[in-house]
Amino acid sequence: MQVHVATAGPDDAPLVLLLHGFPGFWWAWRHQLPGLAAAGYRVAAADLRGYGDSDRPPRGYDLWTLAGDAAGLVRSLGAREATVVGAGWGGAVAWTLAALRPGVVARLAVLAAPHPLALRAAVRRRPWSRASRILAAAQLPRLPERRVRRDDAAWVVEFLRRGAGTGWAAAPEFAEVADRHRAAMLAPRVSHTAIEGFRWSVRSQFRPDGARYAAAVDKPVTVPVLQVHGADDPWIPERVARASARWCGAGHVHRTLPGVGHFPHQEAPQHVTDALLDFLDA
């Protein structure tokens, strides 16, 4: 399994591993890569399995396997441990890694990403919520892939626009963001492999592997945790994100960004970089 990473900073510095969400790829961290590297950290922004220039095998899009990919990446970069930062789906991978491979994670930071069990509980309580509807739509065979790719991936642009907070869709950089994300999702098989994780997250709840996963991650994370959440996230209410404190056993800092939606690292990049540096230097 080949995983593509973009790196910056000194090779011998403490490692910070950045894990993107849907529908992103490593470039979503374009602002944090130079900012963290300039502060003296070695930074690696990965393309998750099935995204970008990483391999796209036919299976392995469950959180068990994706966390294993991340752990292997830390080792392949020559580090014993890393501060792991995840956004969206990448945040779910980061939470899982911290629970299953605690020796690999020095600190954990998550953006727009409640603990997987907090999100699962919220979806069950409100099956009509926006997040629930997105997950439900992903369960259909083939149709979601066609929808994503239709009209030169126009759906991707609309997804970014709907998920954003006030102003980002009108910002000068949004056109480039939209074009790059559309191109990433139009790459061969990515529209399928990117959705497979959402399929697993729902279907596994009715299978033994889902029960084993829930039991495995239902324990306190043993490293400090930073949560950054957009106050205007249309899919994940802040109360759901704050419920993640239940799984934080070694300190928990929650930062809310006003006017920001589901993509804090892209919508408010300097605020996120500053929050990460404060957390890393604490």
From TrEMBL:
Pfam families: Abhydrolase_1. PANTHER family: EPOXIDE HYDROLASE. The lineage of its organism: Bacteria, Bacillati, Actinomycetota, Actinomycetes, Pseudonocardiales. This is Pimeloyl-ACP methyl ester carboxylesterase. The keyword Magnesium does not apply. InterPro entries: AB_hydrolase_1, AB_hydrolase_fold, Epox_hydrolase-like. GO terms for molecular function: hydrolase activity. Keywords: Hydrolase. Residues 14-268 form the AB hydrolase-1 domain. The keyword Transport does not apply.
